[in-house]
Each structure stands twice: as C-alpha cells, then as structure tokens.
Amino acid sequence: MTGFDIPLYQPVFGDAEIEAATEVLRSGWLSSGPVTEDFEGKYAAALGVEDAVAVSSGTAALHLAVLALGLGPGDEVVMPSLTFVSTAAVVALTGATPVFAEVHGPHDLGIDPADVARRITPRTRAVVAVHYAGHAADLTALGALCRAHGLALIEDAAHAPATATAQGMLGTVGDIGCYSFFATKNLAMGEGGMVVARDPALRATVRRLRSHALTVSAHRRHHGGPALYDVDGFGLNYRPGEIACAIGRVQLDAFPAAQAHRRAAVREYRERLSGLPGLVVPYADRPVEDGAHHLFPVVLPPGIDREALREQLRASGVQTAVHYPPTHLFTAYRERYDVGPGSLPVTEDIMERQLSLPMHAGMGSPQVRRVAEAVSAAWRPAE
C-alpha cells in the first residue's frame, strides 16, 4: 500500500467488512438510515452511555460539538497545539479564538492543566482535552478546573475509541466527546466519527445540526414519513453513510481483539527500545491496558538528526511520521492569532524530536523486532 515493508499504519479488513458493505448496496439505501442507527446503539453500549450520534468525520464531530455549545465570536477555547489542526480549525471557523497551551513534557504529551489555568480569561468558554496517541489527558485536573470556572470540557478522543482508563471511558468524562473513524484510526471506517454528551439536550442539538437542522430525516420521508419538514436551526450536512457505518459495526465487533494486538506490540516495543540511551517512550510508566495506542510515539534525545534517522529507517523499509507539526506554528494561526515560535517552548522542543513508529492491529512480533532493530542500528552513529 505504501511501498514500505512495515508501514506506519495498515487497516485490517476482511470478508466481514466486504459482506457488510455489499448488504448496504443491496438494500438500496446509502445515506444515514437503519444501519447508522444500529451502529450508534452498539457504539453507545460499548461506551456505557445512553446514546451516540454518528457523523461523517472526526472533524465534523468536533465542529458540531463547538456549535452545540454555542461557541462563537468573542469566546476563547484553550487547547493543546500538539494535535491535528482540525481541533483548532473548528473553533476558528465559529469565530471563537483557539488559545494554545503547553503539554506536560516528553513523558506525557497531554495538555498541562497548570498551563491551562494560566491561560483562562473572562472570555474563556471551554477547554479541549486531546487524548494524544490514545492516552488519557489529565481529566481529573481539567474537570476540576472547568467546574471551578464554569467552562465546558470537550474531549477530543479521535485517537481513543471505546477506551476504558483509570479516569473513565475516554470521551464520556467531559461534557461532550468526539471520536474519529478515519482510515488510519483504531476503529477504521474510511471516513466517520461519533459524538457523545452527558446532556440529552446537547446530543439532540448535535443530531439536528448534522443534517441541516431538518425536523424530519430523509430516511423517514422516503419510507412513509411526513413529506414536509421544518428547519429549526442552521445546520450542515455531516451525515455518515450506511456503508461506512456497516464497516464500523464489523470493526467494533473486532475491536477487542485488535486492541489486544496493539497492546502486545506496545509491550514488545517498550522492552526492545528500553536500552537506547536518551530515547523517551511517552506514557511508558502507564499500564499498557490504560490506553488505546493509536500511535507509538518516541521522543529523541537532543542532538539527534531526526530526518537522517528517518532516512535510515526508510532505507530499512520502515515508515515513520511526525505527530504533529504544532498548530500554533502554521501560517494561518500565526497571522490571525499573533502566535509563533517561542510561545510554547515545551511543545516546540518536543516536536523537534518526536517520531512515530509503525503501530497498527496487524503488527506482530517479527515486525516489532525488525523496527526496533532498525532503530537500534540507526542509533549507533548518534551515540
């Protein structure tokens, strides 16, 4: 798929996904309908919540979350810069201002509640907790901070579907949680997402806004429901497709086994990389079971040429990546929000040294061993 012997990620699909997609095609109904509703129910059950709202992407989930919370011009939302740009983009698109906060450091790439506290102003309305790589942010501290200041806590759980941790099921602890089912994710549908919220009114708002705020869905109209409808808000087309949700149901059934494969790979990675001088494996002090392990990030010691290391690994057939270029350094954010180099020194230092190694449910011990050996071989010149 990528030209690499060991790709960074590789979705695991089989006959069950093919048959599920084929059944939808045979049904003649491709947009949100009964398969979507069934997937929502099964995902909600996996999380232990009342209901969930399927949407077209993780970005759509985040956008609907900020819209449902009523965020807009004049409001501020505190979030990490160390995340995919969509976390900030959906806030910016409402007219609200993303305010970037530091992460803890190389051992914990989650947002630092102490730095969040320093950035709260009278205009702050919400905080976004990103569960980076599928590891829980400090929801206990962030939740207490949000309650003290009357702020909404949004969980960006794009990396952590149906993930139980010591702090609770990720995405269900805060006021509203958002998931991504993009092709690279642990639960892969190609495109797709989900929103959950503790407040039923907030969930109802998300459900209306995902389909133009229509009071009667297309599926109901097509299958004997009212022909006319009202529009009671300003919504968007963020509906998922039935084929994606059919694949999602199958992936959800296979999710526990897939996660077991990831956890086994993480255990072996941690053991095999432990002897490399100066290499930091974030979250290595946490139990392997306490995370989704969407990515396997490492932080290189100062002085190592990351691109030279990546080139050596590429020559060995191993694909790597950087997650993520800090959002506050992108041109659009520098120009509009007067941020840039030097404003988040901890984040900027880490992201000069971060590297993601291959991690997916198809990783077996031979692949992990080969990656670790390639890293070790490339490490020697830098020692």
From TrEMBL:
User: Pfam families from the xrefs?
Assistant: DegT_DnrJ_EryC1
Question: InterPro entries recorded for this chain?
Answer: DegT/StrS_aminotransferase, PyrdxlP-dep_Trfase, PyrdxlP-dep_Trfase_major, PyrdxlP-dep_Trfase_small
User: Per the UniProt entry, what is one GO biological process?
Assistant: polysaccharide biosynthetic process
One GO molecular-function entry: pyridoxal phosphate binding
Q: Would you say which domain of life the source belongs to? A: Bacteria
Q: Which residues carry out catalysis? A: 185
Task: Report the cofactors.
Answer: pyridoxal 5'-phosphate
Q: Which residues carry this modification: N6-(pyridoxal phosphate)lysine?
A: 185
Similarity section: Belongs to the DegT/DnrJ/EryC1 family. L-glutamine:2-deoxy-scyllo-inosose/scyllo-inosose aminotransferase subfamily.
Under what name is this protein listed? Answer: Lipopolysaccharide biosynthesis protein
Question: What's the source species for this entry?
Answer: Streptomyces uncialis
